[in-house]
Design goal:
Strands 7-6-10-8-9 form a 5-stranded mixed β-sheet, covered by helices on one side. It has a 3-stranded antiparallel β-sheet with strand order 2-1-5, with helices on one face. Residues 24-46 have low confidence and may be disordered. It contains 4 helices and 10 strands; from the N terminus they run αββββαβββαββαβ. 24% of the residues lie in helices and 26% in strands. The termini are far apart. The chain is α+β, with helices and mostly antiparallel strands. Among the domains are: 59-122, wza like domain (wza like fold, 2-Layer Sandwich); 131-216, Roll (Outer membrane lipoprotein wza fold like), CATH 3.10.560.
Length: 223
């Protein structure tokens, strides 16, 4: 074969290989770019205390099993409610999911269902806590001073003392004084917090208000 034919054939073959290589590279996925997968693991949900009191901004899933519609996403409004068809808005702030579910179940069975199965789960806790005021503790508690209250989370007298580290060894837990401004004048009431804690009687355990002052006196004998 003449040499010019050999050279022509070689050039043509080289051009063909270059074209095929270019096309292959255009269709290839660069290794540096990850290919998304539908099986990628989802972000892990928060572990939430089941006894947590619901607050404004919490994200929930509400399911009424008999409706067969699955879970409905809900966000607790600033006023402390969630929408529950067909009831409308139901107040849930300050309740646990168990308490809120029982309330919704009772309302549904009163007017709409013979039997209702209500499931209420916390998907995400609100990262924002709204300050509702301050109470001040003094005397025989381990952490005396101001203590903030959070909106939607009622703070009782015994809880405030426990948050302050509890009583000191010389405290008199039977004569805890709660002072509150009523119509511009301070009014004081004594509470036997030792008995309240031991009995678990919430009715005897007052809910605190902004500006309340709590004083735990010193005892002459140890309790």
């Amino acid at each position: 074969m003449p040499s010019f034919l050999i050279r022509t054939a070689s050039i043509a073959a080289a051009l063909l290989v270059a074209q095929l290589t270019g096309r292959a590279q255009q269709g290839a996925v660069p290794r540096a770019v990850p290919v998304p997968s539908v099986y990628a693991p989802q972000e892990r949900m928060q572990v939430v205390d089941p006894d947590k009191k619901l607050s404004a901004g919490d994200m929930l899933t509400v399911e009424i099993v008999e409706d067969k519609e699955g879970g409905l996403p809900r966000v607790v409004t600033a006023s402390g409610a969630i929408a529950v068809p067909p009831l409308g808005y139901i107040q849930v702030v300050g309740k646990t999911t168990t308490e809120a579910s029982a309330d919704i179940k009772h309302r549904l069975e009163a007017d709409y269902y013979y039997h209702a199965t209500v499931k209420l789960n916390i998907d995400r806790v609100s990262p924002i806590q709204v300050r509702a005021g301050t109470v001040t503790l003094s005397g025989q508690v381990r952490l005396a001073g101001p203590q903030e209250m959070i909106a939607g989370e009622p703070l009782r007298l015994s809880s405030a003392i426990l948050k302050a580290g509890g009583f000191t060894e010389w405290a008199n837990p039977k004569k805890v004084k709660l002072t509150r401004q009523v119509n511009g004048s301070p009014q004081s009431t004594e509470y036997n917090v030792k008995e309240i804690i031991e009995s678990g009687n919430e009715k005897a355990d007052p809910i605190l208000q902004d500006g309340d002052r709590i004083n735990v006196p010193k005892a002459w004998i140890r309790y």
